[in-house]
Amino acid sequence: MPELRLVDPDGYTVPGTAQTVPDADVEAVRHRLLTETAPAHAAQWADFGYRADAYRIHPEPSTNGQ
Asked: Does the pLDDT at position 20 exceed 70?
């Protein structure tokens, strides 16, 4: 199971977005993070030039059980 995290334009993980998800749910979680979470976070930081389209999803291999 991959760990997905929403990364802001400066390369930082948006707090509360790192999550390990089953393979079957990866696309749904990616979609939610990019269409719901990124715009909300960008709106909070709009004064600093943040735009939702500059956010990315960073997948990392899960470390559970290793």
From this structure: yes
